[in-house]
Write a structure and sequence with these properties.
By secondary structure, the chain is an all-alpha fold. The chain is built from 23 helices and two strands. It has one domain. The protein has a two-stranded antiparallel sheet.
């Protein structure tokens, strides 16, 4: 008989959960997190290139961000949080407008504004209303566009695919086969070994990449080092935070507003996606009532951005969702309590695992040569999921057409252009029915219980 766990503690809008007390140890998710810290570490080259930051100082920022990831499940948000990945190119373009010596100030101003804006929406209750009132076509276009942008980032000229063509192809192929192949799902029903392999998510693909990349000459063999990693909090604190460089000038806050709004459009898409994926899982798990509250999510990731803006500005930003891992965890959660007792346990122990991995030098040194592959893998899975979920947000064939145009503009011209074009298109097509849109029953016949597990 499985152990029963007490209800979470109420604390205002939050439901407080602690490991072992409120959810059991999920070793699969913890083990996967140990290796998937490779994606968290992938933020380091971004900070080194854009801000001229030393590796150890950038590692310190990754560690702080990693600790703040734990706030989501511990405060009642049933997701695996991550970066605002599709908005990274937008922020990079903005920061490149400044000389290198001013970029830290510009990043601080941006992240403080984004955090304050998100908290305001969550505290006033407007976040949930925004999700409800935005037309279906616009919601679908934003989510699809974010997915297309994620895929483009991998295959763009000079992108990660050009550096690791064979490794990415093999690792991504394996990950998609294990997660979405109908043939493998049938095999899992007959074979315990296959069922176990499928429960590991994208961990096998990452481990395969460690060996494939050197074999194809796309990365050196890892040089394993032993001990504990040494993030440089002193350099980070004195040279890259408000305590060392001071507050940005007022005009930097003003000039950051358009980029903040553009980034929030992507965040909005992540919120929609998180809600949609969890709603899809509800039919499979009547034993656990999972409530995704957009207002609560805004308070948590808004608070993370605000804290990082003060204590460790991060150009990967603090987003509400790591789509690839959220889906991986949710797919196993759908299989029942024996596979995962609670979605909070899966999400929580994954993030406890990534935090542990950041301090283990053997893991950091093992994964360092393939950080680009890990990032590409999560981007491509995110792209797949975003496009699938985005299409299902449409309620009619007209919605799909509008969403396709919005997605194309967003992916090529940026989030602000896509959002603006979407509003104009919806006004022209739906006029007085702008908020209501239309429904022609396009997906009304789709049985979620049957289709979702086999995708």
């Amino acid at each position: 008989m499985s152990r029963s766990y007490p209800n979470p503690w109420k604390a205002g809008p939050f439901d407080v959960r602690l490991p072992f007390l409120h959810y059991r140890f999920e070793w699969r998710d913890y083990s996967q997190g140990l290796v998937m810290c490779a994606v968290d570490l992938g933020a380091i080259p971004l900070m080194q290139e854009l801000l001229g930051m030393p590796f150890e100082a950038a590692l310190a920022i990754v560690v702080i961000n990693g600790l703040l990831y734990l706030l989501h499940h511990m405060l009642g948000d049933p997701v695996i949080p991550g970066w605002i990945t599709p908005a990274i190119p937008l922020l990079t373009l903005y920061l490149n407008e400044f000389p290198v010596e001013q970029r830290v100030h510009a990043l601080i101003a941006f992240q403080l504004l984004l955090g304050a804006f998100s908290i305001t929406l969550g505290a006033t209750g407007l976040a949930a209303k925004v999700v409800r009132v935005v037309p279906n076509a616009l919601r679908a276009g934003i989510v699809i566009g974010a997915g297309v942008a994620a895929v483009q980032g991998v295959f763009a000229a000079g992108g990660r695919f050009e550096t690791f063509p064979w490794t990415i192809s093999i690792a991504v192929g394996l990950a998609f086969f294990l997660m979405y192949s109908n043939a493998f799902k049938r095999l899992q029903r007959r074979s315990r070994a296959a069922e176990f392999l499928g429960s590991l998510g994208i961990l096998p693909a990452i481990l395969v990449a460690v060996f494939v990349a050197p074999m194809f000459g796309e990365a050196p063999w890892p040089q394993i080092e032993w001990g504990i990693s040494s993030p440089d909090f002193v350099t980070m604190f004195t040279q890259y935070t408000v305590f060392g460089v001071g507050l940005p000038p007022v005009m930097m806050f003003v000039t950051a507003i358009p980029t903040v709004l553009a980034a929030y459009i992507v965040v909005f898409g992540d919120v929609i996606q998180a809600k949609a994926v969890l709603s899809e899982a509800d039919a499979f798990r009547p034993d656990e009532k999972v409530v995704y509250d957009p207002n609560r999510a805004h308070l948590i990731f808004g608070g993370r951005n605000l804290l990082m803006g003060i204590f460790g500005p991060d150009n990967a930003m603090c987003g509400p969702l790591w789509a690839a891992m959220h889906v991986t965890t949710t797919e196993r959660y759908k299989k029942g309590p024996a596979s995962m007792q609670s979605i909070f346990g899966g999400a929580g122990w994954f993030r406890w695992g990534t935090n542990t991995g950041l301090f283990l030098l053997p893991i950091v040194s093992l994964l360092e040569p393939i950080l680009g592959v890990a990032l590409a893998l999560t981007l491509l899975i995110q792209g797949f999921v975003s496009i699938r979920v985005g299409i299902m947000e449409a309620a009619s064939r007209t919605d799909l057409g509008v969403a396709g145009v919005i997605a194309a503009i967003l992916a090529t011209k940026g989030a602000a252009w896509g959002f603006g074009a979407g509003i104009v298109l919806c006004l022209l097509i739906y006029t007085v029915d702008f908020f209501r849109g239309e429904s022609d029953g396009l997906f009304s016949e789709k049985p979620a219980e049957e289709d979702s597990p086999r995708e």
